[in-house]
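Today's session is about reading a structure prediction critically. Students often jump straight to the picture, but the first step is always the sequence itself: look for stretches that repeat, for charged clusters, for runs of hydrophobic residues. Only then move on to the predicted structure, which in these notes is written as discrete structure tokens rather than atom positions. Here is the chain we will use throughout the hour.
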Amino acid sequence: MESLSAYARQFLGLMEKPAVDYIDGLSPAIAIDQKSTSNNPRSTVGTVTEIYDYMRLLWARAGRPYCLDCGRPVTRQTVQQIVDAVLEYPAGTRLLVLAPIARAKRGEHVAILEEARVAGFVRVRIDGDVFDLDDQIKLNKNKRHDIDIVIDRLIVPDNNKNADANLRLAESVETGLSVGQGVINVAISLDIDGSDDHDGKGDRSERVFSEHFACPYDAFSFEEIEPRTFSFNSPHGACKRCTGLGVEMQVDPALVIPDRTLSLADGAIEPYTHASTSGMWYNRFFESLAEEYNFSVGTPVSELTETQLNYVLYGTGTKRLDVRYNTNKGQSRLYKSRFEGVINNLQRRYRDTDSEHRRTQIAHYMAAVACPDCLGQRLRPEALKVLIGDKNIDLVAQLSVAEALAWFESLSGETTLLNDREQVIGKQILKEICDRLKFLVDVGLDYLTLSRSAGSLSGGEAQRIRLATQIGSALMGVLYICDEPSIGLHPVDGDRLIRTLERLRDLGNTVIIVEHDEATMRAADHIIDLGPLAGVAGGKIVAQGSIEDILTNSDSITGAYLSGRRVIPTPKTRRLGNGQSLLVRGARANNLKDLEVEFPLGLLILVTGVSGSGKSSLVNEILVRRAAQVIHKSHQRPGDHDTIEGLHYLDKVVNIDQSPIGRTPRSNPATYTGVFTLIRDLFSLVPESRVRGYKPGRFSFNVKGGRCEECRGDGYKLVEMQFLPDVTVPCEVCEGSRYNREALEIKFRGKTIAEVLDMTVDEALSLFEAFPRVKRVLQTLVDTGLGYIRLGQPSTTLSGGEAQRIKLASELSRRSTGKTLYVLDEPTTGLSFLDVHHLLDVLHRLVDGGNTVVVIEHHLDVIKSADHIIDLGPYGGDRGGLIVAQGSPEKIVTVKKSATGQYLKPFLT
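Below is the predicted structure for this chain, in token form.
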């Protein structure tokens, strides 16, 4: 980018230059990092990989349009093609060449008929009967009429090479197209001998020809079919109602009635339980509904019939109910009123209200549902009527990668759906599509659908998609840098990934990988091991060379674990739990096959399986969301299932994911864990602070008082440099400390508040050793292997694994009731063997406290430490969603069809 002009560079996202003297031999570099793909709902697997762009081109050039009304093929024909089609009739066939000038139009049409007579035409066909224009023709003005001008009457010649007959036919067709505005009819007729039988009755079978992209039968027309016709990101192709999103927000019955065991009287209608006045008002309607339709307001909603529940949710239509209300004098009166229904009521109030607060409240009960017009297909009806074979572009986009590859390969096979012309057009397009689909299969993503939203992909899936896109480019002499590409990848797919990376290398590229996966390390040509520990205790090259060099290096912790000198121990006994359990019934979200799954409480439970087998659907979408809905009154809709039994055994659900702990540099580990509040309290108790009257807020860099007002507590200033990267300079007043002089004059054990924030957790633990509340939080951070991070380190600089362990430490430092469900999604991301060792110690501490920990994980050292394993599979996508095995690790390894069990077996011997 530095080779571009200064003008061009100001439009590019520029990065700071690295803190290095020089780099020799640097080839063009491509970084494939861990950042997730776009959260834009318009971004899909197909668009990210560019496969959908090639598909749009294929459908635009080789697709066949069909009429939206009658379903007939829509084609564009030239005069020569029309003539050739007419000459295919049997020799001697009598034909009428007709030009349609009115279709199903009311009136006497005197002007139209007179205009045709003046133009020199002799005959006209009205509603199927032929008349002379010189005759007195009187039409019923209250009826609809079809009117065609008879351009010519002719007989198909015996010899198609009859020049005079062909010339006459061509002239008639040209005239007919001119009069009929691009459309003509050719009808078989017996009225050809010049007799006075003008009724034209006989065989009326006919063909319609058009020189437009329009259905000649229904006048349905296509605009010019272009690639943008199939783009849901363009107004030319997107559904008009949902603008290409495929969904719209509507009130969701499942969120309105989260607990169907409650009755209407007990508050089953969640939105009406918050406002006492309106709640009482609607209770009167419910009582009237119950009386009218023979049910009781005390009956659980689950026991109401579908019809009765529909009256509650969607109202009584135009029917009025007798509703009883009390007057100001305490008298009871009846009045007639329609009931619009709970759903319709909330939808109307959301649409009509001017109150942003009320709109936000109602939005809690809304969910994205498929657009009623396009049914979630995102495109306009015209685009969906362009087919290759029997499939439109959306049907193919909904196929899994493996299914789509088989379908596209069939297009270029012997039994192809394309004709010769279309094969020539589509040959190169199909090659590009198939190549990219094969790369996705090679990196273990054959279960994804092309229409899958990019925002729903895991970090590992997103990274492998970008990896497949780069492989598809087949570049040579490039430096590829991949940050943990094995994230989210089951060991069974690890070999595929390694072969893919080796293929990049074999093309003549250099591949540098930041990785902790053992199989990837053993496959590497060269390893650089940094350490020896993390943070300030690291930053040195401990060892480098081949795998053997690492294994034999006594200073390398990585080598110690790889060689077996250090191991993560297998538990000697497995916990039996507390006898209670959660039972998920009828789990059907995404690819789950109506599962019944038991989660025994009081155990460390591992949910395993190949990528795409349904782990996140079961745990995150069903278990966590439903538990949060029941216990914490969350408004997130759980995945499709029947019920979860046993949630009354829990009092808290904690979902610890890898999302950032903060999105601004002002957020840091000290603020997130709450230890900064405790530290500020201690600073406010220092005698000097008490003399000056300083409160804890004086030591916050986020509010006025103690912060530096020049930089507003940032500690730095950003200087915009136009076409150069922005420069960050320390604040010249506070010199980067964030605080003003008065706040920095207060010292706790010889340290200012700024110096405390600059400490590592290990250093801070020594300083606050005598203060139990502060010590407990800092000790849990140390126990999770985070003693090296600084208290004031901006959260934006933390990795996903570090952020997740900070959340874990924050929860661990709180008082536990022993009835908490902890859920972690791949907590080993970014962790070394030593870090995993620390993590397992923390997880076991949580379980020993009586809690239940559910972990989605592929790391075999973590899996072998479980008390109970639920292994899903056997494959990804539609071929997954089943329970392959469940039980202790010793039981899992005996199940031959369990891929997890077979990889786990060497770890238990």
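Discussion point for the tutorial: The two ends are 54 Å apart (CA to CA).
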